[in-house]
Amino acid sequence: MSAQPDTVPAWDLPTRIFHWLLVALVVAAWVSYEFSSEIGDRTMIWHRWNGLAILTLLIWRVIWGFVGSSTARFANFVRTPSQAIAYAQSLLSGAPRRYLGHNPAGAFMVLALIGALALDAGLGLFAVDDNDLVGGPLHRLVGEEANKWATRWHERIFDWVLIPLVLIHIAANVLYGVMKKEPLIPAMMTGAKPAADYADAPRIEEVSHPMWRALLCFIAAKVTLFGTMLAAGGRIF
Predict the structure, then answer these.
(1) Range 2-5 contact pairs with CB under 8 angstroms and sequence separation of 24 or more
(2) Which end of the chain has the least Cβ crowding within 10 Å, N or C?
(3) Is 237 within a domain?
(4) Which helix (H) or strand (E) holds 166?
(5) Burial degree of 133 (CB within 10 A; 0-12, 13-18, 19+)
(6) 90 located within any domain
């Protein structure tokens, strides 16, 4: 009899690169804003390019959610609120089902993070600094009051929404690893999970030539973002 594998593929390489690159860019966004003077970037050019990089990645993720491998596709992990509630109840009862991809509750966290990041970075396109000397690529398309409103909410969403969501996300993943013995963080590094009776699929259905497909999606995302900005009358700094 052949031995059963200890692990099974769960996440493709493009999805993992996206995840960790987005983590790095969110950290860099905070650093490039809070310490712009210390790093000699008083016009915050790094912060602005950082925001455009985040928007490009988010557009890429939306495209990948339709043409990527099975665990990355929205159709395979986005579920109804009632399913998420039922999963949360099973989690509290100590008998949750295991999922190869995102579980129903985790799926809503993923959507919340993508939505909050997109909204925050989108507001940054219209934001200006305190002296009105530096602004996002689209800040000239709206009036001064709209600039101030976008700037205010750009900061508030990061502090009041994004940071709490990120902390909850990290805490949930750590708790899963400690209490449920599910290595969610290592799986997003290695791409593999322990072999088990998963509720959604036994293993990932990976698309052919994933890196080439991901590259084409990245080009499409970049063209979409910068093309839309230019078509709207904005400028790329």
Answers:
(1) 4/195, 5/195
(2) N
(3) no
(4) helix 163-179
(5) exposed
(6) yes
- DSSP H or E segment with residue 194: strand 192-194
More confident position, 13 or 132:
13
In whole numbers, what is the pLDDT of the chain averaged over residues?
A: 92
The CATH number of the domain holding residue 186 is: 1.20.950
| Residues forming a β-bridge with 9 | 192
pLDDT, tens only, 11-63: 999 999 999 999 999 999 999 999 988 988 888 899 999 999 999 999 999 99
CA distance 7 to 4: 9
Distance CA 77, CA 15 (A): 14
pLDDT tens-digit series, residues 78-116: 999 999 899 988 888 877 889 999 999 999 999 999 999
Query: For residues 46 and 29, what is the distance between their CA atoms, to the nearest angstrom?
Result: 8
Q: How many domains does the chain contain in total?
A: 1
